[in-house]
Design brief:
Elements (H helix, E strand, L loop, with lengths): L1 H36 L10 H24 L6 H30 L5 E5 L4 E6 L5 H15 L6 E6 L3
Parallel strand pairs: 2-3
Antiparallel strand pairs: 1-2
């Protein structure tokens, strides 16, 4: 019975994270609709990359808060609390890799980029219509070196956010 309780708690955390992702994705779609529906509003338009970065930061903040709650809950099972602490450490490591990559890309001229690092993949979104083969190779080498990801698991995505 105790094992079932642990599984249900872990499943609840995973389900909550999935629900948050769906809500945030819906929010992005709604923000886009609102901006397009109200062109006369004198609010500066966020680029798609800026919106993505903002949503990523909001999702991460919620994820960290939930993991912190579990990790520091006096009533939580020790194994579950340890799992939450490990996930927090992994999340912080991914955030550090993303910040490093975004900073290096900015120094190399890609001032508006977003990088998402996952356990088995990396996405690099660039504010550009296209990326040359040479630029792509340099970005790919940087990402693989910084994250340890295999080149086949790295996606470089040019986005004209104009």
């Amino acid at each position: 019975m105790e094992r079932l309780g642990k599984w249900l708690t872990g499943a609840a955390i995973a389900a909550l994270a999935l629900c948050m992702a769906v809500v945030i994705f819906a929010g992005i779609r709604q923000m886009r609709w609102d901006v397009e529906a109200e062109p006369s509003v004198a609010v500066p338009r966020m680029s798609e990359i800026e919106r993505f970065r903002t949503m990523r930061e909001q999702l991460r903040a919620m994820e960290k808060a939930q993991l912190n709650d579990v990790a520091h809950d006096a009533n939580a099972d020790a194994e579950l609390a340890d799992m939450a602490r490990r996930q927090l450490v992994e999340l912080c490591a991914r955030e550090e890799q993303e910040a490093t990559l975004e900073g290096v890309l900015a120094l190399r001229g890609w001032t508006d980029s977003v990088v998402t690092v996952h356990a088995d993949s990396v996405n690099v979104l660039l504010n550009a219509d296209m990326v040359t083969a040479g630029e792509s190779a340099a970005i790919l080498e940087l990402v693989c070196r910084e994250t340890g990801a295999r080149s086949g698991n790295v996606k470089i995505i040019p986005m004209n956010s104009g």
